[in-house]
């Protein structure tokens, strides 16, 4: 078993003052930073993934804006892999699978944003590609969502997506329980 950490889209647009702030992104980034520190100490592979919008109607992660920058708590270090993506699924158009396969990685630990989009999409794709996945729930965050007249609070969105992933596509745990 070889394990790698995927940090997905922990970018400034998702934080207060950004173009699309999520619910509790600072707490999620702090938990992600704890997991990142653990991987750095163990010397296990780390992959930082960031999103740059390519759709003409995009309102955040716009090319050349500070919103695409990594949050300071999870800034990549020299030698850590950094991949740019343009789709919710971190495997599309990034070379991620080849990098992981080349390193002999079989297990992925996934943290980041948004629970309801890129974390869900990336985790499901990873599972379908044969990776064993662990999602660190408190190291992920989601937005409030609307459907018609109904607003679903971000905490509920997050919980629903974590519950849907747990057991079928990943083991979902908390940073305090992760080893």
Automatic annotation (TrEMBL):
Pfam families, A to Z: Isochorismatase (PF00857)
Domain of life: Bacteria
Keyword tRNA-binding part of the UniProt annotation: no
GO MF terms, alphabetically ordered: hydrolase activity
Alphabetically ordered keywords of this record: Hydrolase
Domain Isochorismatase-like, residue spans: 4-176
Protein's recorded name: Cysteine hydrolase
Protein's organism: Subtercola boreus
């Amino acid at each position: 078993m070889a394990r790698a950490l995927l940090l997905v889209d922990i970018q400034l647009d998702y934080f207060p003052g950004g173009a699309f702030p999520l619910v509790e992104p600072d707490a999620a980034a702090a938990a992600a930073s704890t997991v990142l520190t653990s991987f750095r100490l163990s010397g296990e592979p780390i992959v930082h993934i960031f999103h740059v919008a390519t759709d003409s109607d995009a309102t955040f992660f716009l090319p050349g804006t500070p919103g695409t920058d990594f949050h300071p708590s999870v800034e990549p270090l020299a030698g850590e892999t950094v991949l740019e993506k343009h789709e919710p699924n971190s495997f599309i158009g990034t070379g991620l699978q080849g990098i992981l396969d080349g390193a002999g990685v079989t297990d992925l630990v996934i943290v980041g944003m948004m629970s309801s989009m890129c974390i869900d999409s990336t985790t499901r794709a990873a599972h379908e590609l044969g990776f064993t996945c662990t999602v660190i729930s408190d190291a992920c965050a989601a937005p409030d969502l609307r459907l018609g007249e109904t607003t679903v609070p971000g905490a509920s969105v997050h919980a629903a997506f974590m519950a849907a992933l747990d057991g079928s596509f990943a083991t979902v745990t908390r940073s305090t329980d992760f080893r």
